[in-house]
Structure formats: C-alpha cells, structure tokens
Design goal:
67% of the residues lie in helices and 0% in strands. It is mainly α. Helix 1 packs across helix 2. 0% of the residues are buried.
Length: 70
C-alpha cells in the first residue's frame, strides 16, 4: 500500500506505474487479462530462476578439473 503522506513518488514507484499502465493498455484495459498476463510472466520467471539455481548447485557440486599444461 502506498504512503499517501509522501509528496513525490520514488523512482521504483514511477517505473512500476509505467509498467502497470503498459500491461493494462496491452490488454485493452481489461484488468483481469492484465493480472493474468502478469501472473503468467511471473511463473515463467520463477521457472527460469529454478533452472538457474539447479545449474548453480550443479556447478558448486562438480569438482573443478585441473587443466594440463601443454
């Protein structure tokens, strides 16, 4: 929830407001569609994060191979 006592929005608030406006406009001002699109986008990003975490864990568990001198 926003703090209405502040006089000017922060940079993040400006960025979020712009992003929200863009999503709603892209969904022909249908808020249900805009929320659905954002939820789907969030799920995609969460899946990508999960993949990156698995890759990182694999890299941390895999011993480094020493390169042989030529």
């Amino acid at each position: 929830m926003r703090d209405t006592n502040r006089t000017s929005p922060t940079i993040d608030e400006d960025r979020y407001e712009g992003a929200i406006t863009e999503v709603i406009a892209a969904c022909d001002s249908d808020l249900h569609s805009a929320l659905r699109a954002l939820l789907i986008a969030n799920e995609v990003l969460e899946a990508e994060v999960a993949i990156l975490r698995r890759q990182q864990q694999h890299m941390l568990r895999t011993p480094k191979r020493n390169a042989k001198a030529a």
